[in-house]
Amino acid sequence: MIIQKTENSRISSFDPENYSFGDHFTDHMIICEYENGAWGEAKLMPYGPLPFSPSNMAFNYGQACFEGMKAYKDSSDEVYLFRVNKNFERINKSAKRLAMPEIPEEVFVGGLKALMDIDRAWIPTGEGKSLYIRPLIFATEEGLKARVSNKYMFAIVAAPATSYYSAPVSVKISDYYSRAASGGVGFAKAAGNYAASFYPTQLANDEGYEQIIWTDDSTHEYFEESGTMNVFVRIGNTIYTPPTSEKILDGVTRDSFITLAKHKGIDVRVEPIAVKDVLAAQKDGSLKEIWGVGTAVVTTAFKSYGYQGENFELPVLSEEESFALSLKKALVDIQTNAAEDPFGWREKV
Ligand code: COI
Questions:
Q1: Is the pLDDT of residue 163 over 90?
Q2: Does the pLDDT of residue 256 top 80, yes or no?
Q3: What's the CA-to-centroid distance between 36 and ligand 1, angstroms?
Q4: Which residues get modified to N6-(pyridoxal phosphate)lysine (predicted)?
Q5: Rounded to whole angstroms, how far apart are CA atoms 86 and 189?
Q6: Residue in 226, 228, 297, 331 to alter for ligand 1 test, most ligand atoms within 8 A of Cβ
Q7: Is 168 helix (H, G, I), strand (E, B) or coil?
């Protein structure tokens, strides 16, 4: 790897007590370019803008996908990554679906570790804090013919993370818009999936909801995801999450929640969640919680939801009573080396 360190660290201008998610970037970034059918040598260099023209094929035809990961510091200032392999495998699944070249493991993992090592001073500690890491691959060839690009860039940037939502949010169960279609790219972390979600989300915001629970595109009768997160529902003492599919992202936090819940002896069912069953559980009082999970948010509890013009409140539960909050704590404790890691998920950098 080519290493070009910055001589002007910006760390002294970063206030770890006062920032929002993803609005400051660490001193360095990784880039690696693909052309003539091969990835070149990765480069660690100062974070900053890169020159691309408006005819870049990623801007025009959307060949771009990304990952979301986090690094954590424990109380002794040691740095840890979490389930790196899952993100490595997923970025290549996304790349393949978007007809982009897969990234070699040594570039992805080597780049990640080198960046965490050099920018370790940027990893904040404290409640809900970590360093959010964004690996991405995008087309870089110039050209307006709608075809597969011959040039790409892989990059990794990192930004201090703090709570994504400051309080439980209200969500709208979609009965019209959908996030993903059968045969489409819903399982991939394609940049365009997020672009396509913004307009329906704005409409939901105008109605007073912060996020959407996405339902299936053909019947709108089944939950798929929520906002940019996988979704969980608790009815009685059983938790449900839809099975992953070509329309549902195979979330690392989702998988970790399922594993942790089973480990704690909670009844977990990975099966379709019908809107009508949620409404029926609301009616008979057995609906306890609905929440979203993802790397950026970890967990966002929903306080209420709307469906076809009607609003429904969810119970307010303490951390001990809430499966969402107790599983979140168990997960963060593993990630930050505050608890045993029986699953071998944590990796010291
Ligand atoms: C993540 O949770 O890492 C995501 O990719 C969501 C992102 C849009 C902030």
A1: no
A2: yes
A3: 31
A4: 189
A5: 13
A6: 228
A7: coil
From 161-175, 261-275, 283-297, the region with the lowest mean pLDDT: 161-175
For ligand 1, atom 9, name the residue with the nearest CA.
296
Number of the ligand 1 atom closest to the C-alpha atom of 296 = 2
- Give yes or no for residue 228 CB within 6 A of ligand 1: yes
Is residue 198 lining ligand 1, measured as CB closer than 6 Å?
A: no
Place of tokens 């510091």: 73
pLDDT band at 239 (very low <50, low <70, confident <90, very high): very high
Residues sharing a CB contact under 8 Å with residue 125, sequence separation 6 or more, in sequence order: 73, 75
Using 50, 70 and 90 to split pLDDT, how confident is the model at 29?
very high
Please give the Cα distance from 18 to 14 (Å, whole number). Answer: 8
* 249 pocket-lining for ligand 1 (C-beta < 6 Å): no
296 C-alpha to ligand 1 centroid (Å): 5
Nearest CA to ligand 1 atom 8: 228
Q: Which two tokens stand for residue 73?
A: 């510091």
User: Could you give the ipTM of this predicted complex?
Assistant: 0.95
Separation CA 128–CA 296 (nearest Å): 10
User: Given a cut of 80, is residue 211 above it in pLDDT?
Assistant: yes
Tell me if residue 331 falls in helix, strand or coil.
helix
Residues 6 or more apart whose CB falls under 8 angstroms from that of 1 comprise 41, 42, 43, 44, 110, 111, 114
- Return the ligand 1 atom nearest residue 164 CA: 9
Give pLDDT, residue 164: 82
φ/ψ of residue 151, rounded to 5: -130, 145
Residues 166-184: pLDDT tens digits?
Answer: 789 999 999 999 999 999 9
Q: Is residue 295 within 6 Å of ligand 1 at its C-beta?
A: yes
Residue (of 121, 123, 119) closest to 111 by Cα position: 119
